[in-house]
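EI: anyone free to look at a 88-residue chain?
SC: sure, send it
EI:
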Amino acid sequence: MERTQPKNYLIESILVTLFCCLPFGIVGIFYASQVNSKFVIGDYDGAQAASENAKKWMIWSAVSGVVIVVLFMLLMALGGLALLGLNW
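SC: here you go
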């Protein structure tokens, strides 16, 4: 029975590591790099699990990066309002 290789999410993990959140992205790269080798040696369940973990960590990295940017922008806006003498 021929099986299809699961997506490894390596490119996505590298991009979110560079642009969003370094620690979570590195974990995503770690799992993404295991997908192909596990599939080649016949560990299909392991390859699928590594793919799912890579996807999970890639998403967490992207979400945390967006949250950090939004919080930073909010703090900058509130700090800017404080400079104008407007307090909440």
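EI: The radius of gyration is 19 Å.
SC: 👍
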